[in-house]
Each structure stands twice: as C-alpha cells, then as structure tokens.
Write a structure and sequence with these properties.
With 382 residues, the chain is an alpha+beta fold. The protein has three domains: 105 residues, Acyl-CoA dehydrogenase/oxidase, N-terminal domain (Butyryl-Coa Dehydrogenase, subunit A, domain 1, Orthogonal Bundle), CATH 1.10.540; 109 residues, Butyryl-CoA Dehydrogenase, subunit A, domain 2 (Beta Barrel), CATH 2.40.110.10; 147 residues, Butyryl-CoA Dehydrogenase, subunit A, domain 3, CATH 1.20.140.10. The protein has twelve helices and ten strands. Strands 1, 2, 3, 4, 5, 6, 7 and 8 form an eight-stranded mixed sheet that branches. A two-stranded antiparallel ribbon has the order 9-10. A hairpin with an 8-residue loop joins β4 and β5. α9 packs antiparallel against α10. The termini are far apart. The mean pLDDT is 93.
Length: 382
C-alpha cells in the first residue's frame, strides 16, 4: 500500500472531501499538467474547476461562504492538490487566514466572501532585496495620512503576486523602527500606486509566478491595517508558522507521494538483465527509503496540524515540519530521478519537473538553515 494509513483519525466527512479532491485532481486536472508546465500558467479551465469545488474557501468560516475547516483538513486537501502541482495549492489561499485571524469585522466582511468564492487570490508579501531571512530589516515604508497610509518601496519573491487580487503587505510605519514598527496591510492590486514591476523567470514551480511588486505612494485605507499598527512582525511570524505546515509541509508530502508512486510503477515495469529493476537491491532499497521519508513527513505534518486546531503554539513544530518535509521531498525527488535513470532526466516524464520544484522547498518561507536556528534557539531557551 503506497499511501500508508496513519493513526490520525480522519473523520468521514473529511475522508469524503479528500476522495472528492483526489478524483478532481486525477480526472479533471491531470490532463492539464503538461500545459501548465509548458505555458507557465494555470489554464482558465483549471481555475474554474478549483473555484467551483469550493476549495478556495477551505479554511474560511461558513458565515463568509467558506467550508470552515481547520488546519488538519487544509493539510489533507493540500496533499492531494500537490500530488499534481504545488501551483494548484496557491489557488486555495491559505493566506486568507491572516484576515480571519487578525482582521477587523469590516475587513472580514469585505474580503472573506470574495476569497471564498475564488474571485480573489491572496498573496503574502514580506521579502525585500535586503530582507529575506532577516525579515525585521524591511524598508518598505508606510506614512500615515488623513486618508490612510501611503506605501512606498519594493517587495520581491512574491509568490503569485502578479495574479493576486489581494496582498498581505508588511511595511514599517513612519516613526517605527525594526520589528516594533512593522505593520501588516491588506492591499488590493487595484489601489493606485500598486505596480507589478517584474515577473521573475525561475527553474521550477511553473504555473504560479514569482513577482516583484513596487509601491509608489500607494494609498491604503486605515481600515485595511491587519491587526494593530506595530504588530506586523507578530502577524508575519504567526502566518509563517501556519504556512510552513500547510504550504511547505503538506505540499511536500503530496509531491513525495506522487514521486513514490511513479517510481514504484516504473520499477515494476522496467526490465533489465531479464528482471524487473525493482528486484535489484540498488533500486528496491531506494524505494524503501522513499516510502519511509514520505510517511515520516506526513506524520509530522499531521501532528503539527492537529496542534494548530487545538489552539496550541506550534513555532517549534512548524520549523520541524518545514525542515523535515521539504528536505525529505528533495531526497525523494533525487532518488526518483535515479530510479528512472536517463528517462528521469527527460522532460517527457514528470519526474524532472518535481525534481526542480522540490528544490525550492528548502528555501522559501524560511531556509532550512533558518529552521535549524529556530529549533535550536527554542531548545536552548535563548
């Protein structure tokens, strides 16, 4: 059994949703995989399928048109979507949690129904040229005015930033300094002064773009502050904790599961020296390691997700998930290429695509080195 069962109880309703998403991905979306890779875009047909599934509202409260499900459900569904492509995961906006957790009633009323319907996709915009791992070093500024705040500066590495109708933008309010001055804003792409400066070409994760965003006296209404002025660093860290579990952890598990399935199938069918290659220990042992890596990653993701739903702090667990799951997916991808041999390096198969996509996991939303720093400091209490 390639998808090993776990001791984590999956309620019947969630199991039904999981199977519905699995059928949708494998029957309706799978035929578009090649097109997504070759055109570096999500076809309208796929966006319509996802929007019609209700999944954009997965973790949005029912009163706003969503499903009202928790992090565990979000991870189960994300795993199924990422089985095909991590680009699909970004259509099911987990960053809407920022508005749900920290937004005022007016912000939730204004944006959550539109996010739940799929009208808006939301993106997370924190990184700058000189503020990546050192998030507190951001320079994007927000100057208070009678009409709201005027944003000036530039953000880079904004996943989905060119197509997102909404961005969660972090800027330093005039007079503030460092983490204490950082403030979170909900910014519409339609606001004057918002500019998509560039779409970055990249080696993988095709179908969802990485953008540079420029703000030139971009006026943001005061009611679009997320949380309170000066609380932006706390908002960012909380949302990164959640993203590392779902976007990084569960998505990595979905990628690894697909690679495991492809590799086992290939090892059963490919024959050399008169035998199926899976019977050779060199190949069979790689399959065994791939299965272990995938299962272990799934377990830490599910454990952390359950703790989120139980309202427990998860900074330590989310860093562990990010470190273990993304590096496991990277190792699984490398072994999958090896199992497939020369064919695994060819674009005719999907293996090389997942190999390129997996490499990003150890970088975005906090590098593996940053996760080790977080874990070690929490262990030491410093």
């Amino acid at each position: 059994m390639l998808n090993l069962p776990t001791s984590f109880e999956i309620p019947a309703e969630l199991q039904e949703l999981r199977m519905r998403v699995r059928r949708m991905v494998r029957e309706e979306i799978l035929p578009f995989e090649r097109e997504i890779e070759e055109t570096d875009s999500i076809p309208d047909e796929v966006a319509t399928i996802v929007a019609g599934s209700g999944l954009p509202g997965l973790q949005i409260p029912r009163e706003y048109g969503g499903m009202g499900l928790g992090m565990f459900a979000g991870c189960v569904v994300t795993e199924e979507l990422a089985w095909s492509s991590q680009a699909l995961v970004r259509l099911v906006g987990g960053d809407a949690l920022g508005i749900g957790l920290f937004g005022s009633r007016s912000l939730m009323d204004k944006y959550l129904p539109r996010l739940a319907s799929g009208e808006f996709v939301i993106a997370f915009s924190l990184t700058e040229r000189d503020a990546g791992s050192d998030a507190a070093a951001i320079k994007c500024s927000a100057v208070p005015t009678p009409e709201g705040f005027r944003l000036n500066g530039e953000k880079v590495m904004v996943t989905g930033g060119d197509a997102a109708g909404l961005l969660l933008v972090f800027a330093v309010v005039e007079g503030g300094n460092g983490p204490g001055g950082m403030t979170a804003f909900v910014v519409e792409q339609a606001f004057p002064g918002f500019e998509v400066a560039r779409v970055e070409p990249k080696m993988g994760l095709r179908g969802i773009h990485t953008a540079q965003i420029a703000f030139k006296d971009c006026l943001v209404p005061s009611e679009n502050v997320l949380g309170e002025v000066g609380e932006g660093f706390l908002v960012a860290m909380r949302l990164l904790d959640l993203a590392r579990i779902r976007y990084n952890g569960a998505a990595s598990v979905g990628n690894a599961q697909r690679l495991l399935e492809m590799s086992v199938s290939h090892a059963r069918e490919r024959r050399q020296f008169g035998k199926r290659i899976g019977t050779f220990e060199g190949v069979g042992f790689m399959l065994a390691r791939m299965a272990v890596e995938t299962h272990a990653a799934r377990l830490v993701v599910y454990d952390a997700a359950r703790k989120v739903d139980a309202l427990r702090p998860v900074t330590l667990e989310s860093a562990m998930v990010k470190l273990l799951a993304t590096e496991a997916a990277d190792r699984v991808a490398d072994m999958a290429v090896q199992v497939h041999g020369g064919q695994g390096y060819m674009k005719d198969l999907q293996v090389e695509r997942f190999y390129r996509d997996a490499r990003l996991g150890r970088i975005w939303d906090g590098t593996s080195e940053i996760q080790q720093l977080i874990i070690s400091r929490l262990l030491l209490g410093v």
